[in-house]
Amino acid sequence: MRPQIVLFGDSITEQSFGSGGWGSSLADTYSRKADVLVRGYGGYNTRWALFLLCHIFPLHNKIPPAVTTIFFGANDAALLGRTSERQHVPVEEYKNNLRKMVQHLKEVSPTMLVVLITPPPIDEEGRKAYAQSVYGEKAMKEPERTNEMAGVYARHCVELAKGLGIPAIDLWSKMQETEGWQKKFLSDGLHLKSEGNAVVHQEVVRVLKEAWFSPEQMPYDFPHHSVIDGKHPEKAFQLQCPAEF
After folding, report:
1. N or C: which end of the chain has fewer CB within 10 A?
2. Cβ–Cβ contacts within 10 Å for residue 162, how many?
3. What's the CA gap between 71 and 166, in Å, rounded?
4. Is pTM beyond 0.85 here?
5. Contacts with 238 (C-beta within 8 Å, 6 or more apart), sequence order
6. How many C-alpha atoms does 84 have within 13 Å on its Cβ side?
7. Where are the alpha helices (DSSP H) in 74-141?
8. What is the mean pLDDT of residues 222-234?
């Protein structure tokens, strides 16, 4: 069977199989070499996501994922006293929740490669413009998220990964290296355009290659057509399908 890559996160993960999404791009990169499974839950924070762990990643899974990305924080970082405050999770709890996720996954499979991804940066003006386009005069006067606060959560995510000895993708910092990132990468001040999805895809593939999961070095699940003998096709399948011979 092909190894599995599970993408666990909030709406940015849930939307990752849309047109130009980072999940669909990852599935293309690992085509015929690994299966990419999306487990994204729009609006979720790390507190709510903990309830899903044993359902998505059961302890006695006979074939656990080879790789799991954990991509939360955009909702945890919602500000108290603003329109999305019910999603808010204090930053220390956020960090501890991520720790619990990693510990659970390592209990499922000690060899699983777990990758933490920080929340993206926030374009506050973009968030306000989006709210006005949806709610008109009833829209919030102040953004429910700020880039400064997203950065606080991002730093805690990176610190945790370093302490646990696992890779992290500092998306918050990476995107801001590009001039005009606000409009180039974000569709509504938070969620990703295709260009933003491309950054996530690029960074995930980079981290996987730096580990032990390079697509170029992985075998196809079944023989490439170029090695199949037209007159004796069975020869190409003898190793992978011995029961057929």
Report:
1. N
2. 12
3. 14
4. yes
5. 245
6. 20
7. 91-108, 124-135
8. 90
Compute and round to an integer the Cα radius of gyration of the chain: 20
Task: Output phi, psi for 70, to 5 deg.
Answer: -115, 115
The answer for residues whose C-beta is within 8 angstroms of residue 210's C-beta and 6 or more apart is 167
DSSP reduced 3-state for 86: helix
Q: Which amino acid is at 46?
A: T
> Is residue 226 flagged as an active site residue?
no
The residue type found at 164 is L
Dig out the tokens for 102 from the structure: 């990693």
In the block, tokens 């996530």 appear at 200
The 10s digit of each residue's pLDDT in 1-35 is 899 999 999 999 999 999 999 999 999 999 999 99
CB atoms inside a 10 Å sphere around CB 64: 19
Q: What's the rounded Cα separation, in Å, for the pair 44 and 35?
A: 24
Residue found by looking up tokens 């933003």 in the block: 196
Round to whole Å and give the CA distance between 89 and 95. 10
DSSP annotation of 120 reads: P
Strand partners, 39: 8
Which residue of the set 11, 16, 25, 84 is catalytic? 11
